[in-house]
Task: inverse folding
């Protein structure tokens, strides 16, 4: 009975706080195809090196990586700054991450693997709940709320729209540097009932082959 009460009535040292953050989701697009084409251990080592670089980039721009899972990264910006600054920091961090991938591709991926690694990024901003939560007495940063789901769906939408970075209109309106981000669309996101206003802020995915084939092997 006591165990049941603990499960049904959990207690936490401190409640989650509401905070406005910039939320960035990143995914390595052709990860599955690379695993099929190359030795798995080699691909995993490559991805870990990239994520190590991405983590440092996020830190350099005042952000915090919340989670890395497989071929995906989730980070937030603004834990110690106001929203406009955090959105601009997240956008600048994403640009440096794209530059890092390009440098990696020029040096390694295309010469040795026959094709480039590619990433897709979704960026959103909004009010979320920030706290700590973890199993087995290992609390970790927890950021939850609808804006997190929207950012994740924006990243997934990059496949369908063939554009490697999508920014929500909410985040776009806070950017001080938005040159080249002009195309506005209204889209439906999986699992989100309300239509979302977005900006296409990236480039079409690189293809040596037909786009349909590339998307079919995307991770």
Result:
């Amino acid at each position: 009975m006591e165990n049941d009460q603990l499960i049904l009535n959990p207690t936490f040292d401190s409640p989650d706080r509401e905070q406005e953050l910039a939320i960035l989701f990143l995914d390595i697009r052709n990860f599955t195809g690379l695993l099929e084409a190359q030795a798995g251990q080699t691909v995993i080592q490559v991805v870990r090196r990239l994520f190590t670089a991405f983590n440092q980039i996020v830190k350099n721009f005042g952000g915090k990586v919340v989670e890395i899972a497989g071929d995906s990264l989730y980070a937030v910006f603004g834990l110690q700054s106001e929203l406009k600054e955090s959105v601009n920091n997240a956008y600048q961090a994403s640009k440096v991450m794209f530059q890092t991938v390009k440098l990696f591709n020029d040096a390694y991926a295309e010469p040795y693997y026959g094709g480039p690694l590619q990433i897709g990024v979704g960026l959103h901003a909004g009010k979320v709940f920030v706290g700590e939560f973890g199993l087995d007495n290992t609390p970790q940063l927890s950021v939850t709320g609808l804006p997190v789901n929207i950012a994740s769906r924006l990243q997934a939408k990059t496949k369908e729209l063939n554009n490697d970075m999508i920014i929500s209109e909410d985040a776009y309106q806070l950017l001080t540097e938005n040159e080249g981000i002009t195309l506005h669309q209204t889209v439906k996101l999986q699992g989100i009932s309300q239509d979302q206003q977005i900006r296409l802020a990236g480039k079409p995915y690189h293809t040596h082959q037909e786009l349909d084939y590339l998307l079919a092997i995307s991770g």
